[in-house]
Amino acid sequence: GFTDHVALGNEEWNPWDVDEKNQLAASQQRYEANLKMIKYARSHVEQTSLRVQIWGKAAIGLYLWQHIFGGHLEPADVTAQWREGSQNAGKTYFSFLTGPSVVPGYFSVEAEHVVLVLNGREPAKIAYATQWLHYAQTLMESRKIQHVAVVLLGNEQCNNAWIQPYLKRNGGFVNLLFVTYDYAFVNEEDIFQWPLGVATYRNFPVVEPSWSMLHDPRSYLCNFLGTVYKNSSRETLIKILKQDGLDKLCWIAAREQWQPQETNESFKNYQDALLQSDLTLCPVGINTECYRIYEACSYGSLPVIEDVMTPGDCGNSSAYHSAPLQLLKTMGAPFIFIKNWKELPAILEKEKKMSLQEKIQRRKKLLEWYRNFKAWMRQKFINTLENSFLPGDKG
């Protein structure tokens, strides 16, 4: 049951129950059940049996904490040197630390169980991540901490061999690994797939669904704002859109070079494009999974995903029958998956004929799915840590 993920605030205005009067009673019951549960949780705060400190040393830590956990950080200023937050969840008290001032040896370790959020995308990041792992190992050896889990922004080609020796199964000390992209070593025992999420390094916000986001007609059938790499399927996509004059019906802004940092204006344009389009086109980049998928979900714009495996070592195993995007597919993501952009004109023709009412229903379904997806990831994360870290359980 995910009842514990519904914050009180969400129940005051629930866009999914607007038209269904008979569901008001159910909503009221849920509200009262939540109240009871919150009171119950408060009276049982002292019963948390696990204290976990999360050290957020990669931007995906903010997706974990603010988007999946719905946690807050003080101070709110994203440029602050030190930010922290805490919450009770399940049998666990979580605290989260992030910012440039969180440096090995220069902050107090206040839990026996630690989750390290690391970036392993490229050699320089791996070198930095390794320093943190060695610090954690020293704390383990001196018995200051008992367990370590890692949430890893993996390499886009899934070359994550460097982390393997640190895993307990290989003689190391890391109990659990949550890793992004379709890493072939995911086994649902000690290695789990983790969602890439939104680009928190560009300060993509936590978006609350609004009435107008659900109900207003949108000006564009689709959008694609992004880098067009030479000889990529993105070039094909742009050609197909221009050929049929479909680029007039969509918000298309292509650039030739990737920019890690947005300007305020380009970022606002991007958010507006998501909000003003029924579909968001997601051509493959270096990996099929991209921030754009999750960002489109945040604004109720349906991702149209180029469902092809990218070169590298992602998903090359018998377990990966539904790769790429194994995690999203397993969770029943209601996206449009295509194998080739030549399928796009037919999809857009269908879009033109859809009524606003049908689009509203689709947005509701998408936003509700995304809300449930985050709740499920949170629950799975908590359960996995508790099963592994609590005494008497395995691990």
UniProtKB/TrEMBL annotation:
Residues 201-390 form the RXYLT1 C-terminal domain. One of its GO terms (molecular function) is ribitol beta-1,4-xylosyltransferase activity. CDD domains: RXYLT1-like (cd21099). The keyword Acetylation does not apply. GO terms for cellular component: Golgi apparatus. Keywords: Transferase. It comes from Cardinalis cardinalis. One of its GO terms (biological process) is protein O-linked glycosylation via mannose. The keyword Transferase applies. This is RXLT1 xylosyltransferase. Residues 52-195 form the RXYLT1 N-terminal domain. InterPro entries: RXYLT1-like, RXYLT1_C, RXYLT1_N.
